[in-house]
Each structure stands twice: as C-alpha cells, then as structure tokens.
Amino acid sequence: MRGGRMPQATSRSDATRAVVFSPLEGAGRAELVEQRLTDAIVAGVLRDGERLPSESELAKSLGVAVVTAREALVALRDKGLVLTRRGRDGGSFVTHDRDAAMRMTDARVRALSRIELRDLSLHYAAIAGMAAEVAADRASDDDLASLVEVDARADLGSAGGARRAMSRFQLEIAAVSQSPRLVHEELRLQAESGPLLWLCLREQAYRDRSRQARVEVIEAIRSVDPPRARRATTDHIAAATEWLIDEKSRLESPQQGPEQGRQPAPDAEDRKG
Asked: From CA 170, how far away is CA 125, in angstroms rounded?
C-alpha cells in the first residue's frame, strides 16, 4: 500500500458539525437553514440539550442575513426541535424528541419523489465510491489499522450507534483518499443526505449488513483492490436506497396512516438521538 494520512483532523467523530455550520449554497432562504438544522438534529449531529450559536453567529457561519437565521429558529421552535430561554444563561437549545424526529423524517421521505431519492443516492454513491476506490490505492498500514478500529468500535445495538459508525467509517475512507475535496463533499453529504439515506439502520438486519459492507471494503483495501472497494461501497448504498424507496411506498400506502411506517422498538441510544 502507498501513501500516508492527509494531515488534517478529518476523522473526528463530530466532524460533520463543521458542515452543519458551513455556508449554504445558493440563495440563503430561511427554509434552507431550517432544513439543514432539522437534518442535523434528527441525525443526532446536534444533540439534545445542546446550545446553538446565537442568531448573529449562525447567520455569519451560514452566510445568510440575521433575519433569515431568526426565521429559521422560529420555525424550529414551532416544530418543537428548539427551545429558547432568556437571561444570562439563555439561548436556543436543541430539544430532540425521538418520536417527533421520526415523524418529520417520514414526512420528508413522503415529500421527495422517487426520482429525487434515487438522485440523492446516485450523488452520494459517486462520492463515497470514488473515495473508497482511491483509498484502496493510497492507504498505508496505519490507515488500514485505523479503519479496522473504527469498525471494531461500532455500536450496532441502535440506529443512532450504527449511523454514527457509518459516518465515521465513510469519513475515514475519505480521509485516507488524501483528497480534501472528497473529504469536504463527504462531510456535506453526510449532513444533508445521511438522515434519509441511512434510515434503513432502524432495522437490525441492515445494521448487520452495514458491518458486512465495512468488512468488505476493508478487505478490498487490504488487497489493494480499488474496483472491489468501490463496488462494495456502492452496493451498500444501493441496498439502502431500495429500502428507502420501499419505505416511501409503505408510508404512502392507503392502508397506512401518516405515521405508520416501520416503527422500531425504542432503545436507550435512540432516545438520546
């Protein structure tokens, strides 16, 4: 294996937070700010009880007007995702409710067309697949050991734990590719697409499949087999996408109520976000 680690702290487990508060692309509408923060809260990137930046700080980091940030926070309060307190220790705080988060995520799945969901998957597969392919060619022994450790520490006992394990592993793969652009795009897509793409991790069978996919990618990297690493990555994303499309059909079924998608049994980890 060739190459060394990219000299950046890109493999930190909370690295997606940097993207949550990075400038928005396109017009800075309040709806875009609201959606980004909603996704981050639902995905557990922003945790229950966490204090958000002030309106002015949020506006500056996202590249929007203060009034836009304020409108987005009002919408988040109306959703029950943010609570604002006054006084010296006041501010806006995340109030994550698991059941409410699931309802909002399911509503977003219903709102997007199948074409949009497949396009989201295609974009993510292009980035993650390329990162895996390049990583298989450039990884050092230390890189491989780091990937093995990330997989070994994965918590598959809950959707939240499995999702964080996937996030860390994919981010580590991007870091091993030694491409700052791939790392940044991986971070951005994790923040914007991850909450939908990895909904399949609500089910234990898909959590187990996520580990199998990581093992396959690790073995491909160990064997210096770039095509195999890319294929293992894109096949896993394709399976997650098919689950998502199937879930959309279930949510839209006339026999189903608006909140009767696949409802996993609650566990301690998911109650925390």
From this structure: 11
